[in-house]
Design goal:
The structure is a single chain. With 400 residues, the protein is mainly α. The chain contains 15 helices and no strands. Helix 1 runs antiparallel to helix 5, helix 3 packs antiparallel against helix 8 and helix 4 packs antiparallel against helix 5. The protein has a single domain, classed as MFS general substrate transporter like domains (Growth Hormone, Chain: A), CATH 1.20.1250. One of its GO terms (molecular function) is transmembrane transporter activity. The chain crosses the membrane at residues 12-36, 48-69, 81-99, 147-167, 173-195, 216-242, 248-267, 274-295, 301-326, 338-359, 365-387.
Amino acid sequence: MSSPEQRPIAVTLQIVSIVSFTFLLFLCIGFLLPVLPGFVHHDLGFDATTAGLVIGTQYLSTLASRPLAGRLTDTLGAKRAVVYGLLALAAGGLLVLLATSLPTLVWASLALLLASRVLIGFAQGLMGIGTASWGIARVGAQNTAKVISWNGIVCYGGIALGAPLGVTLAGRLGLWSLGAGILALAALGLLLARGKPAVAVVAGQRMAFLQVLGKVLPYGLCVALGSIGFGSLATFITLYYGSRGWADPAWCLSLFGVSFVGARLLFSWTINRFGGFNVAVLCLLLESLGLLLLWQAPSPVFALLGTALTGAGLSLVYPALGVEAVLRIPAASRSSALGAYALFFDLALGVAGPLMGAIAAHSDYASIFLVAALLAACGFVICLVLLRRTQQNHEELHFD
């Protein structure tokens, strides 16, 4: 546990040492994002809705695992949750290896891919909550925003690095190398986890998950509406580029990650300075503008600019509203709060694939980003209402 006198750099190093497990996870996820939609659509011969379903299955699995992940972390400890997540990741990598080795058996390959997405989603649920709880326990609740921010930085940093690396591996070695790479990284994570000290389980009465969910609902709804933009971009940017005759869609995912990470590194301090609601309102507006630019992009340059604005806009929404949500929950149920809050992010990504796939099937791939922009704008409006209500409550308390 950190002390108030501990230097910021020491706190950051402790956080980074824990969220490195999240980086390994999202490096694996990044391997697959630019490759799987094309494999399902072109190699296996399924439609765009099925390609979206394959990607979205991971996020639906993560969503379903959040209550269990929060409860397990609260009761058995954060380190154990992370280790279980790494084991699930390894199993998912093995199934990816098998699925990509059987491209002529299209239904068997699809079934194996769906099963792998379920396992990787379960790993994401356990490791996302486990690393956040582990980090907060190590550096103190006063650094909650910093832990959540760094966890997100390594998430999107992993995707930014993993996406072009996955394309390179698949192109030079074959699709089997992606499953083999996931197995290797999961093994590395298990090796690193052995040397990390566990933290004590927080004692106290634990809230029921539905109670926790009710308390974080308003904040999570805004996160969900904003996160659909990322889910849409991650799932369909490859097919969107293909429909326009543009090359190198993986750079969009990389630029999204770079702008996301850069904004968090440069502006995370604004959450404590100006308040979570103020930061989230501005970020959701910026994300909406980026998605609108993607919708109307006349060339890859404008698509990249829209992607950068989307990444920068989404960057601080999650930690800004997360601080508002999590600090209202008792410490004994902190992991459950993190799980309930993250559930909305998972829901958005799980819905984005099949929903936007259906929209693309009836319109075109560009219209996906218009719908995502409108949803982010709805999140902006709700967040603005929450901000006004919070300000009114503060004014009433001050008056009393």
